[in-house]
Amino acid sequence: MSEATVYQRLREHLAYLKLTTAAEQLSGELERAQREQLSVTQVLEKLLRLEVQETRARRQRGRLRFALYPVIQTLAEFDFDFQPSIDRKLVAELSTLCFIPERRNLLLLGPPGVGKSHLAIALGVTATETGYQTYFTSAADMVQNLQAAHLAGNASSTLRLYLRPTVLVIDELGYLPMNQDAANWIFQVVSRRYEKGALIILTSNRGFSDWGQIFAGQVVAAAIVDRLLHNPVALNIRGHSYRMRAYQEAMTEQRTSGERRSLPRRAS
């Protein structure tokens, strides 16, 4: 069998096995092997390494698409200097994702605009890139989707969407009051994930003592808090709003620009 035939057969085998990256790189790697006098084993290891890298990247992209993060944010982008109340050592520990195998819920509490969502998304994205399946939703969207599914008669399948991921990120709990039906859906998700040992990353602008006002009832609020507070990691952020800072900086720049334009020109 000629070299050309062997090469063609090899490409066909790789294509049949859907090792597309290895197939695409085959010619170049064979040429490099001849130049550098590499062994067959070395060539095979390089081709499979490239295939593994591409497979990991493809799966990571798929996990990120499934997770539905509104933006991709990282811990490196977080301005810790603006929020000195945050325990940087704790955030650094959380970045190792040690809380996931320990099955500890992560609760991020504080007023609007202090970076709760940024931290929640950044840790969720880190978990996704590491290989965990995650999913992002606002509390309001989750309740709305579950209620709509219930009315359509397929609540069970929609509920699985929120129960299946290893990490469920629930954003903005407490910004809007919830009626009894909404409170029951939150309880269903929290309770069932608690039973299976799956964790939640949750952000809220309200302290736990105020959750009775969110859910219009102390009983269901107490039941939800009881499950969330089983061996949790809590991060309270007390600081200024990033959005307000950005607004003030924009206003300052606008005033400065206006003052420059209004200065009279000197006569020549």
Describe it for me?
The chain has 268 residues and is of the alpha/beta class. It has two domains: 3-66; 75-245, P-loop containing nucleotide triphosphate hydrolases (Rossmann fold, 3-Layer(aba) Sandwich). Helix content is 59%, strand content 10%. The chain is built from eleven helices and five strands, in the order ααααβαβααβαβααβα. It has helices spanning 3-16, 20-36, 40-67, 88-94, 116-130, 139-152, 155-163, 180-196, 211-214, 218-228, 242-262, and strands spanning 106-109, 134-138, 167-173, 199-204, 233-236. The chain has a five-stranded parallel beta sheet with strand order 2-3-4-1-5, with helices on both faces. α1 packs antiparallel against α2. The longest helix has 28 residues, at 40-67. The radius of gyration is 26 Å and the shape is extended.
Largest sheet: 5 strands, parallel
- Give average pLDDT, whole number: 89
Order of helices and strands: HHHHEHEHHEHEHHEH
Number of strands: 5
Could you give the distance between the termini? Answer: 88 Å
Helical amount: 55-70%
CATH class of the largest domain: Alpha Beta
Strand order of the largest sheet: 2-3-4-1-5
Judging from the principal axes of the Cα atoms, what is the shape?
extended
**Main structural class:** alpha/beta
CATH topology of the largest domain: Rossmann fold
Please give the count of helices.
Answer: 11
Q: Please tell me the total number of domains.
A: 2
CATH level-two architecture of the largest domain? 3-Layer(aba) Sandwich
Q: Write the CATH homologous superfamily of the largest domain.
A: P-loop containing nucleotide triphosphate hydrolases
Q: How much of the sequence is in beta strands? A: 5-15%
Low-confidence stretches: none
C-alpha Rg (nearest Å): 26 Å
